[in-house]
Amino acid sequence: MIEDIASICGTRLGPGTLYGAIARLEQQGWIEPLPPEERRQPYRITAEGMRVLRAKLTTLQQFTKVGLERLEPL
Amino acid sequence: MNRTVAHLLMRLYPRYWRERYGEEFEAFLETHHGDFGASVNVVWSALCEHVFPTRGGKMHQPIRSFGAVLKQPSAFLPLAMSLIALAMVLGDIAIYGVVHSADEGAVAHLWQLLMAGQTPIVAFFAIRWLPRAPRQTLPVLALQAGAALASMAPVFFLNL
Asked: Pick from A4, B14, B29, B72: most CB atoms within 10 A?
């Protein structure tokens, strides 16, 4: 997951930061644990998590679009 | 990361966090590159978890009572230090009377140590407990302030 995040946004999360985020996302009900695979603990996004993520990404998309449009004439 | 180091780092987290994530986090750390930066990141995250605990869902912490907050060492130690400082000053006055001298005695030095020494403890208590249980923490902070003021009162009013 750390490698995946690093490849998407270029920031490498520390293990404490990553698990802090996992704990908060799970406690919000936005991700849920799947059965463990040996010592590896996979998680998946919940329906509520998808709804929240879609809303956040839509807001971010609008923000980015407007920001780029306003930067265009400069 | 070394298994022992991973276990020690995991132990830095609060108990409620360890009960839920401890095992998988330790397993995750063991598979992670054990560089210094990663260890610092875990220590910092554990400290943050103590100060700003994860809320909601299964991690919801019951609201603690005033008594439970007062039983924390960082709550009662400053109170005890102030009361000891006050008792020392009053005892000194009872035995020797109000004496003004240029040379500060042992009691004065101990009083200063007790009063200065409790400042970081009070700061730690406020940082740790105010976000978790503000209603229970504020009266304890008021008690600590009251005890400190009571201890300072004879020193300032009698110009000791």
From this structure: B29
Nearest chain B Cα distance for residue A69, angstroms: 38
Residues B50 and B87 in one domain: no
CA A42 to chain CA centroid, nearest Å: 15
DSSP A40: B
Q: Is B57 in Cβ contact with A29 (below 8 Å)?
A: yes
* Co-location of B86 and B147 in the same domain: yes
Residue of A nearest to B28 (CA): A40
The span from the first CA to the last CA of chain B, in angstroms, equals: 58
Mean pLDDT calculated for residue range B85-104: 83
Task: Give the whole-angstrom CA distance, residue A28 versus residue A22.
Answer: 10
Cβ contacts (< 8 Å) between B56 and chain A: which residues?
Answer: 27-29
CATH of the domain at A16: 1.10.10.10
Same domain, B50 and B72: no
Kindly state the average pLDDT of the residues B7-31: 89
Kindly report, residue by residue over B39-92, the tens digit of the pLDDT: 999 999 999 888 788 876 666 555 568 888 888 889 999 999 999 999 998 998
Say if residue A31's pLDDT is above 90.
yes
Domain around A59: 2-71
Amino acid at A49: G
